[in-house]
């Protein structure tokens, strides 16, 4: 009997030791993962930190080697020089174009995605394949015919020339179509039986269900439009129609580069993107999570 009890106690001790080892391994893995995440976050934040601190440095300090990590003599001269230019007009152009594209793309992409996901008509799969194929085309491939078309319409150096070509973004249609597929067909049929019109069905039922995807698409569209330097460079001509990225590029001289002024402009240019992300953060995370689970 004593031998049996000893064996039992020995097994319990081994089980407890194994449990402690498992917990310690899990604890070590969690600590290592947190350390890795902190290091990664610091690496991603560092460029923004360098831009913000550089905005308060004079030219010789901004290009000094070894670098001055923290401005010892911060100055606002870079912002004074920056605002001697029509920065507010450039900023308004960027915000108006990016916001208009964000609203337009969310509207058109949600309608197209819903139709491709829930409506049955000839050529539906072919149209979706064309949208997916268009995602693989570099923007530079279509710039020449796009510029010719805009010139024929008289839309060069206008807001409609900057906004309208981006409203049929293939990625937006693809994203909304994938999310619209998760909407139960029975819900749509029940709404139609209750006498719900197609317009009311879309705006009253479909759009609220697509809210997480719309939040993610809004962030993607705004950032893409705000940073669309190449297309805006081709379409704009006058200084008054320049967006903020284009305007900041004109501040670079032929022989010198005012790094402090450019960093001040870059810091200001990043604020709207940060604000948009904070406004749509909840919907964005929900959209990414739903896409990861449901595919």
UniProtKB/TrEMBL annotation:
Keyword tags: Cell membrane, Membrane, Transmembrane, Transmembrane helix, Transport
Subcellular location: Cell membrane
InterPro entries: MetI-like, MetI-like_sf
Record field: transmembrane: 31-52, 95-116, 128-150, 162-180, 201-223, 259-280
Domain (ABC transmembrane type-1) ranges: 91-280
UniProt keyword annotation of Transport present: yes
SUPFAM superfamilies tied to this protein: MetI-like
Cited PANTHER family: ABC TRANSPORTER PERMEASE PROTEIN MG189-RELATED, ABC TRANSPORTER PERMEASE PROTEIN MG189-RELATED-RELATED
Family: Belongs to the binding-protein-dependent transport system permease family.
Name of the protein this chain belongs to: Carbohydrate ABC transporter permease
């Amino acid at each position: 009997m004593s031998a049996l009890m000893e064996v039992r106690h020995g097994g319990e001790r081994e089980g407890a030791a194994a449990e402690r080892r498992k917990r310690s391994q899990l604890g070590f893995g969690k600590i290592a993962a947190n350390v890795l995440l902190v290091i990664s976050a610091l690496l991603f934040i560092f460029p923004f930190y360098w831009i913000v601190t550089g905005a308060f440095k004079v030219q010789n300090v901004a290009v000094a080697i070894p670098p001055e990590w923290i401005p010892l003599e911060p100055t606002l001269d870079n912002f004074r020089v920056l605002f001697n230019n029509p920065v507010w007009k450039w900023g308004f152009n960027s915000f108006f174009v990016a916001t208009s594209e964000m609203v337009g793309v969310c509207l058109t992409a949600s309608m197209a995605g819903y139709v491709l996901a829930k409506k049955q008509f000839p050529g539906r799969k072919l149209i979706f394949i064309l949208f997916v194929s268009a995602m693989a085309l570099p923007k530079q491939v279509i710039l020449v015919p796009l510029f010719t078309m805009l010139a024929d319409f008289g839309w060069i150096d206008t807001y409609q020339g900057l906004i309208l070509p981006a409203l049929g973004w293939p990625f937006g249609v693809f994203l909304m179509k994938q999310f619209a597929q998760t909407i139960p067909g029975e819900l749509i049929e029940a709404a139609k039986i209750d006498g719900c019109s197609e317009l009311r069905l879309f705006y009253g039922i479909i759009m609220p269900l697509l809210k997480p995807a719309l939040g993610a698409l809004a962030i993607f569209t705004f950032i893409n439009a705000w940073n669309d330097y190449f297309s805006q460079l081709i379409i704009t001509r006058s200084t008054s129609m320049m967006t903020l990225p284009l305007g900041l590029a004109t501040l670079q001289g032929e022989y010198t580069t005012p790094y402090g002024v450019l960093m001040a402009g870059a810091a200001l240019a990043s604020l709207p993107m940060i604000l948009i992300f904070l406004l749509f953060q909840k919907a964005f995370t929900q959209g990414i999570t739903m896409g990861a689970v449901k595919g």
